[in-house]
Design a protein that fits this description.
Layout (H helix, E strand, L loop, with lengths): L6 E4 L5 H12 L3 E6 L3 H13 L3 E6 L5 H15 L2 E6 L14 H25 E10 L12 H21 L5 E7 L2 E2 L5 H11 L8 E2 H12 L9 E5 L5
Parallel strand pairs: 1-2, 1-4, 2-3, 4-5, 5-6, 6-9, 7-8
Amino acid sequence: MILKHKHALVTGASRGIGRVIAGTLAAEGARVAVHYGTNERLAHDVVAEITAAGGSAFAVGADLRRPEEVHGLFDAVLAEFGRLDVLVNNAGLAHHGPVESYDERVFADMLAVNVTAPFLAMRLAARHLSEGGRVITLSSALTRSALADHGVYAATKAAVEQLGFALSKELGARGITVNNVLPGPTETDAFTEDLRARLAPVVAQTPLGRFGQAGDIADVVAFLASDRARWVTGQSIVASGGLI
């Protein structure tokens, strides 16, 4: 187990890639705080799965659009664990559309969840992470391309990448590493047949010839969270099967 005795917080862990990240970190020995926004039942299902497999986890809710709840999230995690070794900024909103007609309220929500919340989490992590801690942020391979209707989403992800680059320089003296993981098209429990059909032409250009799986991303995150990645910091790792 490469994460034994580690304590991790995974945001947006009630479903999708975050759910699998939480399970993977727990399987590697970490105690995991499973954050959820609105899906409390699903978060408790994740905790039950981890516990049944012999791991340790607890569910904790917070509306990441509200700064005071981000602070409360950290308070709850520190109260439960007494320390924090790994922060995984996974939670995010994805709404696509042309810039010309993009709804300002949706834009504000995207900024709140995709940029402000990770910023606050990184700031709090900088204050509370143990020596040799880890910060891992989920960005997107879309930051490495320019696609119509995806500009706003990609911009929010690019913003948190830059925050991570800066933080890696600021926390390096404490042995804390900060990295970004950039998934390509990845199947999750929220995948629909319509989405699969729309992404099929993209996947056809992927050298490994398939959609990514949540486990593919979770394994990269687990590596970066471990001591094996002690010499890796300030990086954006594209996990897209060679697409980018």
